[in-house]
Amino acid sequence: MKRIILIALACMCSCSKNDEPAVVVTPPDGTVFSKSFIQIFVVPEEIRAYPLMKNYLQVEFEGDRLNGVKEDVREEFDALCAEYGDMSYNDKIVPYSTVAVGVDCQAIDVVCDRAVDADHPAGSSLADVVKICAVSFREYIESGYVTSPGAGDFPAEFEGGQYNGKGAAALFKPLNEVTAEDLRLIEANFRLLFPEGLAVENLPVTVTVRTENDSWSTKAFVNAPPKAE
Predict the structure, then answer these.
(1) Total number of domains constituting the chain
(2) d(C-alpha 158, C-alpha 24), whole Å
(3) What CA–CA distance (Å, rounded) separates 35 from 82?
(4) Percent of the chain beyond pLDDT 70?
(5) How far is CA 151 from the centre of its chain?
(6) How far apart are CA 31 and CA 44, in angstroms?
(7) How many C-beta atoms lie closer than 10 Å to residue 62's C-beta?
(8) Residue 29 sits in which domain range?
(9) Is residue 203 part of a domain?
(10) Does 206 map to a domain?
């Protein structure tokens, strides 16, 4: 009789535990379950640019970083997920690995602040010769999270250091060929590649990113010599 009572009590405890909310445990591979593919949206307040390596500038959007974890920004984050159709990823992902710009950029331009050749006097645009190296999440999200063939095959010019996991596609073309659609859902940092021979040492430029209602500009030096220790 005592044995029967103990078995009954064990069953009751088991049932009550199953009624409790499940505890989410991070898998050993470091991933978490997420309803959205984008983990962070950056709502820009400014941009900054700096030389990264020979002939490259790194450009970064800086502003509010929204995610679905912090309660004070969760509503705004969810609104951006809805706006960009990123509401049903429902899969594992490395936390904070996908960081996108939370506005629709219309165009990116680079102006040389010093003459570089006969076709590019001081104050002229270099958009015909400078290429963007950016990561785009747009096609993956708009397709319903279907990875297109070759999406992860990045050109050698990307040089590493940018997100190239699942859902990433390369945006690599001259700035004067980049469309507003291209710039939708790009990663919150990108690179500008200057052609060999044009980007002389310490070339001063102004980088501008435009949206429908706003724009941000910053100055930088391409191929700036390293600072003395």
Answers:
(1) 1
(2) 36
(3) 11
(4) 82
(5) 15
(6) 27
(7) 15
(8) 25-221
(9) yes
(10) yes
Question: What pTM value is reported for the model?
Answer: 0.83
Rounded-to-integer distance, Cα 134 and Cα 186, Å: 7
Give, for 48, the enclosing helix (H) or strand (E).
Answer: strand 40-53
Question: Is residue 107 one of the residues assigned to a domain?
Answer: yes
What is the Cα–Cα distance from 159 to 123, expressed in whole angstroms? Answer: 29
Rg of the chain over CA atoms, in angstroms?
A: 24
Smallest Cα–Cα separation from 189: which of 47, 60, 50, 49? 60
pLDDT one-digit tens code per residue, 3-16 = 443 334 344 444 43
H-only helix segments in the chain: 2-19, 71-83, 138-142
Q: Are 66 and 80 in contact, with CB atoms under 8 Å apart?
A: yes
Residue 147 in domain: yes
Q: 76-127, pLDDT tens digit by residue?
A: 999 999 999 999 999 999 999 999 999 999 999 999 999 998 999 999 999 9
Which among 36, 209, 33, 216 is positioned nearest to 137, based on CA atoms? 36
